[in-house]
Write a structure and sequence with these properties.
240 residues; alpha/beta; Rossmann fold; 5-stranded parallel sheet; 8 helices; 8 strands; globular; binds zinc ion
Length: 240
């Protein structure tokens, strides 16, 4: 696969089940974009929990029906159901190169349950794209969203239509500065314990997300390839 060598930062990464990476980042951190980049580049399966729900619902699987009954009542889908879906997806042939988990786990109990399901090695590495509250407010409060397909668009698209589906672009209430701050604090309070959890296992890797998309991608690749924290070289951050 383009000569890419699997990194050597853990025993489990080269075992038959492939690597299990968790990607963490606040809404607006660019996590989705980076997840697509990494899965393309490394041939890993991007496993977004929201997509899994929709996929199972659409196929009318047993799991999908169970999930639907929770979602339709506006209730949280229980951890064991989500884990069942994640494991089922990971067992498919195309996931053999490894998976990149996006949107799950969200809490420490979920992380523990996932590690137990993936025993003995558990999750391989947790990558955290760090972006400050101020930067997220700046990014999201200028973001437009398509009312039809929910695709995001830049602030310079005011008055334009969605490039994907032609739908109307609006600023979501969620993207107003006060709402972004609130969402950030919610995310932080939920995620801090998760970061500590992976940190205590020596599995957490931070990447500075307050840069251009390409620079963040390079930094993530660097961290993945070296297995170490991102190295900050003053004045040459673009060359990582
Ligand atoms: Zn659209």
């Amino acid at each position: 696969m383009n000569g890419y060598q699997l990194p050597q930062f853990g025993e489990s990464i080269t075992d038959d089940s492939g690597a299990r990476w968790v990607l963490l980042g606040a809404p607006g951190s660019g996590k989705g974009t980076q997840a697509h980049f990494l899965s393309d580049r490394l041939g890993m399966t991007h496993l977004a929990s929201g997509d899994l729900f929709r996929d199972h619902r659409a196929r009318g699987t047993c799991l999908g029906l169970k999930v639907a009954s929770y979602m339709d009542q506006g209730r949280l889908v229980p951890d064991d159901l989500v884990i069942d879906m994640v494991l089922e997806r990971m067992s498919r042939p195309d996931a053999v190169r490894g998976v990149l988990l996006d949107g799950f786990p969200r809490t420490v109990p979920q992380a523990r349950a996932l590690d137990m399901a993936l025993a003995p090695d558990g999750v391989t590495i947790a990558l955290f794209i760090a972006v400050s509250e101020g930067e997220l407010v700046r990014r999201l409060s200028t973001r437009m969203t398509c009312v039809q397909c929910q695709s995001p668009a830049g602030s310079d698209t005011k008055g334009c239509s969605c490039q994907r589906c032609g739908g109307k672009l609006i600023q979501r209430d969620d993207d107003r500065p006060e709402a972004v701050s609130r969402r950030f604090r919610e995310y932080e309070s939920k995620t801090s314990p998760l970061l500590e959890y992976y940190q205590s296992q020596g599995k957490l890797r931070h990447v500075d997300g307050e840069r251009d998309v390409e620079e963040v991608s390079s930094a993530l690749m660097h961290v993945i390839e070296s297995g170490n924290e991102e190295v900050h070289v003053q004045g040459t951050s673009g060359t990582i």
